[in-house]
Amino acid sequence: MRDFNISRTLALVGLTLFTLGLGIGPIATAPLSEGHGRKIVYLVSTPIFLLFILGCGLSKSFYSLAICRFFAGVSGSPPLAVGAGTNADLFPPRQRAVATSMFLAAPFAGPALGFVPIFSGFLTWCTNACVCVDPSSAASQRNTRAGNGRNGA
Fold first, then answer.
1. In Å, what is the CA distance from 17 to each residue of 47, 71, 98?
2. How many CA atoms lie within 13 A of 109 on its CB side?
3. What confidence tier does 142 reach under pLDDT thresholds 50, 70, 90?
4. CA angle at 19 for the pair 91 and 103, rounded to the nearest 5°
5. Apex CA 64: angle with CA 60 and CA 68, to 5°?
6. What is the DSSP string of 70-99?
7. Which of 72, 81, 116, 152 lies most in the core, judged by the most C-beta atoms within 10 Å?
8. 119-136, pLDDT tens digit by residue?
């Protein structure tokens, strides 16, 4: 709010647009994953997501931040759309409940236990956005090398 000199209500637009992007993205990515496989959807969307998150961290105006947040939500949504199918491909039925529970708990545990909550008081919002890019890209590369199944899982 201070950096862009905007009201509290307008500051919520970034979060709203990100959430809207998370809702719109699976409309395109779920059918693509069925036709072309899950791996290609992950490989294409992850670098785009990282670029838009980096764009959020480097934004000089509120409008560029809002646009980057929306497209980060759209390009970051494939794990939400095809994550359950990936778990079904990777784990046998007896192990699927534990794997899916961990998959569903990760978005809640990550922000609470991860790097950003510990150090966010010492960093600016721009630095927080840029710091989140590196671990995301490392995890993406590790998962891409591991999978080579029918659906790319």
1. 20, 8, 32
2. 6
3. very low
4. 15
5. 120
6. HHHHHHT-HHHHHHHHHHHHHS-HHHHHHH
7. 72
8. 656 666 566 566 556 554
